[in-house]
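Forum: Protein Structure Q&A
Topic: Joint prediction for protein chains with partners

I've read a bunch of threads here and the consensus seems to be that you should model interacting components together rather than docking separate models afterwards. I'd like to see that in practice. Below is the full input, 907 residues plus whatever partners are listed. Could one of the regulars post the assembled result?
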Amino acid sequence: MQMVGPRNLGRASWNNWLTRRIPKQSIVTLNQRRLFIFPSAAGLAFLALQVLLLLVAINYQNNLIYGLVFLFGTVLVVTIHLTFMNLHGLTLKAAGGAPIFLGERGAVRFELICAQRSRWSVGYGWQRADLRTQLAGLDRKTLELPITHDRRGRFNAPRFYLETRYPFGLIRCWSWVELTSSTLVYPRPVPPPADERIVPENADGATFRRATSGDELWELKPYERGEPLKHLHWLSVAKGFDPSIKVMGESVGTGSNSIDFEDYPGVDTELRLSWLCFRILEASSLGQKFALKLPTIEQTMGSGIAHRDQALEALSLFRTNDSDSVVRA
Amino acid sequence: MTLGLGVWWWTFPSKLALEPAVGLLFLGAWLKLVEAKDRRDGYVFIYTGFVLAASVFLFHQTLWQAMLVLLGVVMGFSALLQFELDSESGKQPSRWLPVAAVTLAIPITLVWFLIFPRIAPLWAIPLAADVSRMGMSDTLRPGDVSQLGRDASLAFRVEFGGEPPSYNQLYWRGITLGRFDEGTWRQHRWLNQTSQRVSAPELMVSDSDRRYTVLQKASHRHWIYALMPSVTSDDRVRIYPDFTLKTRWPITSDMAFDLSLLEPIAVNPVISATSRRVETAFPVGLNPRSEALVRSLAIPGDIGATIDRVLQWYRSQPFVYTLEPTPISAPDFVDRFLFDTQSGFCEHYAYSFVAPLRLAGIPARIVGGYMGGEVNPLNGTVAVREMDAHAWAEVWIEGLGWMRYDPTGVVAPEHVQRGALESLEDAGGFLTASPLSLMHLRHWRWINRLRLSLDDLNYRWQSAVMGYDRDRQVSALTRLLGQISPARLLALFAIAISVTFVPVIALFMVRYYRHNRQPRVRAVQVLDRELRRLGIVRNPGETLRAAVTRSQHSEHYLERAVMLSDALAQAEATLYQS
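Posted by a regular:
Agreed with the consensus. Here's the joint model:
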């Protein structure tokens, strides 16, 4: 519930104006329309210094101090151009973020692409320029804005702040950019208490083991030197992630493990989802086959990374505004 | 901190002048540097540095100092740049960037300098206290230590419209000391009353041959040193009945004053009763030997003859001209000087000459100023230095007015004929305050030529930059623009802005087009633009075809498909089929 006061009204209309002026896009090139420019605090102090020196020049009728004042003033104007050119033409592109669990330190990723000259000292952050980067020549960099999520679901990155004060810190040029970038936030995995867990009868007898070989992608582990290249997971390398090794396997065993929302009747929904999440991870790491059952979705029995991720996505989006988009199972 | 304040307290005896203020600023900046810990302290330090750089101009305004200050300003901007840079990452922008920024600013700065209106001072300001170095002081006491002849720094420079007067006529009058008061010579009280000033325009002559310009260095005083009798139409200047020229505001920076030299006949010779009373006053009984001398020399009713006989007497005595005389501070100074020590410099001679005349009832006064100067053969200007400071006498002669007499010239004629530079050389203490002056080496011909060239450069600087005031602004702008109108001033700005930016833009364009004109670059760019419309940016190392394939998933692919495949075909053809 938001308080409706003049301050909030002002903020709301400012946000509306900003949304009209710099709409949400997956790729944004900074131009006159999207950039704002004004002297920084240091620049205003520099202006005050010039006024002071101008008064000295007038009162002492000193031509050289006049000259110095005009030089300072003109350097300030030249700096406006230099500062503006340091951001103008810079392209920002949303880079998808890997899904994370609630409670983990997440990050919104975006790419900074510089098509022409070097960009020095570009600051960015959610509200202030807490982080700083630079691009030397034709360059692109993937940057991360750290964020701590407060609820599960699909997280759409809010507007963030990008600024530069290069070269002299006298002028601040900035923009508020909103990129269409979304991250899945899974529920926080919480081990369910033993007594509340209604263990399915058939689960005890089931043994699932990873066979030493198989044709099912079991897991990815970081590549270490000397491992055979034929096991390299080329897809992730091509996507620019760290190289990783495919561990193939196959679940062996019988029986099945149904992870059901209705296992814990009467418990708070979020807590229930956290418990389910823990069980999915547990089952997946033990190599068990499992099926997630939610009131909205029912999975078929399965195992492997894709199956696990599908289940986690369903948990994440369960009864959120986005949930309709993932009726796949 | 305490130590710093202590040193400051001890260094500046008077705390309310300009130097202590600048000294305090310097101390503050230095202490700030010691305790600086964050970026804000850094800004405070650099900005204080900028103010200090500007305050250099309050004391020195030569070309060299200006260049030094400019260097300091560039270094200040370099320091500001360092704040913005990540010190850890290897790549750094060009270290010439501050130089480039300042260089780019120069054309527009010049236009501002040309057109910014020069207005009168807004309020009274503290002045430099350290003026003891600068030539004549406002009073004269025989016991004072003299700095004359020790300092080779420039006092002012004179530029003549026509032929300069002969060298022994170059007596630059600053102040007259007509009032003798308890052992000290002072100015007339009426010099402080504005009602007494003479209005000048009706005396102004149009003959350009008799015009000259005094480029006065910042003296922090009011006096303009001028030939007798000079007038001016400059409204910053007042002319007093004794034909001394005084500015309304202290001369706090180098300034130019246009003066006209009148024919001596143009000055109406009258003396008021008050003036006559003040200018013949001298205490009787203190100097019995001098009074006896005057009685023996004076010819009642014939002032001219009396003066001649006094000068004759000077010539007959073994007077010695020296910058380091035996100090005399007794009340019977005139007796002790004329009959006992008989050695001293211009002030002593002027004093000891005026006093006997007054005792004889003749109005006489001491004049403080400069004598001679150095004529620079390269531009014909006369450079008058502190060591040319001089004092002489003026005597009232009925029908002629105030006539100049220089007793020093009688005692040491070479001083008047050749100037301080040559005549003082053998006198003790000469140029001791300027140990590094090139003047010490003036006998080496090429060094002397170098010295005169530097002097010429400084003259041009002083004349063009320092002397730029309201009148010169109007004439310079009229010469430059034809007429001064807003449109033409804007045009001047437009020119300056294009001078600044056209080369920069041209450089960018040349670089850009040299890269882009290549057909293969063009073709890839066309394709990239098509891709970007679909929200696809080619990854490094990604082939054109792979990027196009990737774009097939994007929302508007179908609308752009034809364009995209054309661009791809064109790009591949240019790249691989040549």
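Chain A has three domains: 24-183, 187-209+254-320, 212-249.
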